[in-house]
């Protein structure tokens, strides 16, 4: 099927106008390139903002998940309306066991007893050590990193072993290194404990944690003996997955309340709300940055308009000649629109290449050193490494 003469003529006119716009762009290359700088910067800003936003959200989510996105904790807050002589209604290990039995979705649980004891450093000074009495599940629930030695096990709990794990900070300041701390004895409340391992939190919590620099972990049964009480400070739970955290939290609170007096107040917390707030914050910041990027694009568009207005004024004679030769208003309008489009598209393409290419270049540049080092390993020596 052949095209109609009118369509062929329109295509020829459009092609002529396009080539004329390209020739004009080539003849005024420097001016048009400078005009497109605003579009280039705006496009680069948009790409980088999206990249930074996605990276920032992933970083925040990963940070919270490293702390424990499935983590749930329960603690006693006091009495809602304490009467004269009313006793506190603290949490107990039996509460934890009831939750494990009655709440589906609970993978593991541990009691937490905390107490502060003085510790003599041997140099005439004393530290206030934070002692946490926990069960072996505490490592998994809190995602602790074992730096040296071993973590307490069920045998330590069953035998009420005088075993202790210390933080990296305590091991380095008191013994000089992590390995030197292993096997050493520390005296807590007059009882010698042997250090069986050193640990650190899986991710920096910036002080928002029950673990401080000078913290010692010991089996819960031993901590219970030191406190002389059945009360525990917190119950830490781990849900099967992040989606079940809200339901497990509600059911846990229900079980706890059913086992205690109505006036006792208990709090159940998790990181689900924190995760949602973090994502909302990152999203809000991303929107704000995108608006700034759009302003940059708008400024670039205003620059194109101003330059094209100046171009129209400087090419008044050319426009008059074209009209005298039969060019219509639509053809003149299309010519200048074509030129503006070439400027904006050229700027957008250059901005896209810069926006994508610069992070790629940075990645290649900074990845060269480790890549060269890995490639230079001796195979024999590499096989000897643990």
Low-confidence stretches: none
**Largest sheet features:** 10 strands, mixed
* First-residue to last-residue Cα separation: 74 Å
The amount of helix comes to: 55-70%
Number of strands: 10
Overview of the molecule:
The chain has 386 residues and is of the alpha+beta class. The protein has two domains: 5-61 and 277-371, no CATH class; 70-270, no CATH class. Helix content is 58%, strand content 20%. The protein contains 14 helices and ten strands. It has helices at 5-27, 29-35, 37-68, 93-102, 137-142, 154-158, 168-175, 178-181, 220-227, 245-258, 272-314, 316-324, 329-375, 379-384; strands at 71-79, 106-120, 126-134, 144-149, 163-167, 185-188, 191-201, 215-219, 234-239, 264-270. Strands 1, 2, 3, 4, 5, 6, 7, 8, 9 and 10 form a ten-stranded mixed beta sheet that branches. α1 packs across α13 and α4 crosses α10 (245-258). It is elongated.
Brief description of this entry?
The protein is an alpha+beta fold.
Topology:
Elements: H1 5-27, H2 29-35, H3 37-68, E1 71-79, H4 93-102, E2 106-120, E3 126-134, H5 137-142, E4 144-149, H6 154-158, E5 163-167, H7 168-175, H8 178-181, E6 185-188, E7 191-201, E8 215-219, H9 220-227, E9 234-239, H10 245-258, E10 264-270, H11 272-314, H12 316-324, H13 329-375, H14 379-384
Parallel strand pairs: 3-8, 5-7
Antiparallel strand pairs: 1-9, 1-10, 2-3, 2-9, 4-7, 5-8, 6-7
Helix pairs in contact: 1-13, 3-11, 3-13, 4-10, 11-13
Label this structure with key terms.
alpha+beta, 386 residues, single chain, 2 domains, ten-stranded mixed beta sheet
